[in-house]
Prior knowledge:
- The chain is an alpha+beta fold.
- It has two domains: 5-145, Fructose-1,6-Bisphosphatase, Chain A, domain 1 (2-Layer Sandwich); 154-263, D-Maltodextrin-Binding Protein, domain 2.
- Helices cover 34% and strands 26% of the residues.
- The chain has helices at 5-29, 46-62, 95-99, 172-181, 193-202, 215-218, 221-227, 253-263; strands spanning 35-39, 42-45, 67-70, 85-93, 106-113, 116-124, 129-134, 139-141, 144-145, 158-161, 186-188, 207-210, 231-233, 247-250.
- Strands 3-4-5-6-7-8-9 form a seven-stranded mixed β-sheet, sandwiched between helices. A five-stranded mixed β-sheet has the order 11-10-12-14-13, with helices on both faces. The chain has a two-stranded antiparallel sheet with strand order 1-2.
- It starts with a helix and ends with a helix.
Amino acid sequence: MKISPNELEIYSVASREAARRGGQVLLKWMGKTTTREKGFRDLVTQADLESQQVIQDFLKSEFPDHQFIGEETTGESDTTSHSDFCWIVDPLDGTTNYVHSLRSFAVSIALYHRQTPLVGTVLDPVLEECYWASRGLGAKLNGEPIHASGCKEIDKSLFVFSFPRGMTRTNPEVVRFLNMLENVGSIRRLGSAALNLCYVACGRADGYWATSLAKWDVAAGWLIAREAGASVADFRGNEIDLEKPFFCAAATAELLQQATPHLNV
């Protein structure tokens, strides 16, 4: 199915408006929200739930036939629709940061047609930074085109990363971390997968690796990173699997090639 640039723009505008509405909810609840455990070291807040509901209500009003998958409905699809179009939403990426009033969190919204990403939007409501991309049309930050840094040398790179919940010292992720620590220029753990991918897209970071994420964590961000010129692959150099994403995103193919041997453990 061929989708025109005009159609992509309609979807992208809607995704940005939905993200704006969700972001308003997060700002409203900041410092006031109550939390409960969703799983081991996995928090859900009143802000998550209300943000997702606002986003879903808006998108379903605009595209009533589209499917909807949101993190706070346990990732289950809206089974009332059989459309090939599906919105994948994380209403609050970086919940632990949010709960502790660390101002690094985001709303992430993507539209897929079957297995193909069409548009992605990631909004940082605190900094009022909105990243978006449409397939084949590049990536933008607040309307201005963005590009990955172009870094090709791992010893001069800044990498960000995510650790899975429930880490122990025997976890292979510790080996990956130490391998990278010995080889990269600098390393950071920031707490939002969606923003990490956007930071690679705009050149604030040169690379990002993660395991044990969910599709709503990366559905928008990996499209934004790729449309900004970044290379994204799993640790063996293959296309990432959205259903079980473990991957490295790097500013260039050369940097990705240098990083993946240290990650494929």
